[in-house]
Amino acid sequence: MRRLFALWIGFVVSWWSALASGQTQDPIAAPSPWLAPRRPDGTTYSPTTPPAQPDAGAADATAASAPATQPASAPSTAATAATTATAATTATAPTDAAAATLPSGAAASTGSSPTAPASATGATGATTTPIASRANTNALGALPTARRVSLTRGRLRLLDTSFAGLAGRSSGQRVLDGIISIGAGGVMFGSSFLIPPVAGVADLRPWLWATSGYLALQGIVNLAWAPARERLSREYEALPQGTAAQRRARMRFGERALDDMAADGHRRRILGGIANIVATGALLAVPYHDTILNGTPHTLSLTDAVVLTYGGVAVILHVVQMLSQSEEERLRNSYFQQLELMRAERRSNPG
User: Fold this and answer.
1) Is 96 helix (H, G, I), strand (E, B) or coil?
2) What is the pLDDT of residues 315-347, one digit of tens each?
3) Helix, strand, coil % (nearest 5) of the chain?
4) What is the pLDDT of the chain when averaged over all its residues?
5) pTM of the entire structure?
6) Residue 233 CB partners (closer than 8 Å, separation 6+)
7) Taking phi first (over 0 means left), then psi (-120 to 50 degrees means alpha), and beta for anything else, what does residue 125 get?
8) Alpha-carbon gap, residue 275 to 269, rounded angstroms
9) Confidence band, pLDDT 50/70/90 cuts, at residue 127
């Protein structure tokens, strides 16, 4: 009974001391009072705590403040400081080794960069860049940059775009216009025999015959007179571009071809407009030759309104055609505008 009471007293005293100190005893570090050694009379020894290890700073301070008459304490203090420094170095060594051996692709695959190790912080508190982050930065910096295209190649690309399919489109449109013009002349010539002459009304058959002949002639001219853009575009596409000299020659030929095509388009536009206006005026004189040449009075009718309206609209269309730019001129102007924009962009971004 006395032994049980002594054990209970020891258990209460040990836990009370732990609560009073504000710490929770580690059941492994601190032995249970039930297993503590006992005195011969049955009571337990009072619990003791292990002495605290002095840190390196305190050891250095103690060594510095120790009097000279105690030589034996200096070696033990220095040994304690060396042991503490070795333990700290050993604790941070795995972290440094792990950071140093970390592959560069590990941080990229996980999406996060490793934190700086404790030993990377210097005396001033500055943190160095981790090795994995530097590897990722070097990998990103080694990516190939966009190669700048030379001005000659840029001009060749613009010329290729301008001449692409030009000969085929021009030839197809020219043949279609010629066939339509010849067909319209044939329809007008055939319809002249379907209109019977009416007394008191001007005879339209001479005007229809003249107009149908002019339309057929215009279609034949379109089929026979090919514009310069068809020939020059085919010659440009046949030029080689394997070497630098061949590319420069191709570029110079393409720019001269654009100027020649624009000149040919301007010439065809002016000559065609003048010819069409003169031909329309001559066709209007066919049904009214007696009134114009002999002064015979003529009474206007519905037929006269159709003829005059057709002639007036045709003259207006030919004048607008003369004042507007041809397809070749628009193509040449578009090329040089894009070339000027390219040069301005290269001047603004010289790198």
Assistant:
1) helix
2) 999 999 899 999 999 999 999 999 999 999 888
3) 70, 0, 30
4) 72
5) 0.55
6) 163, 166, 167, 170, 257
7) left
8) 10
9) very low
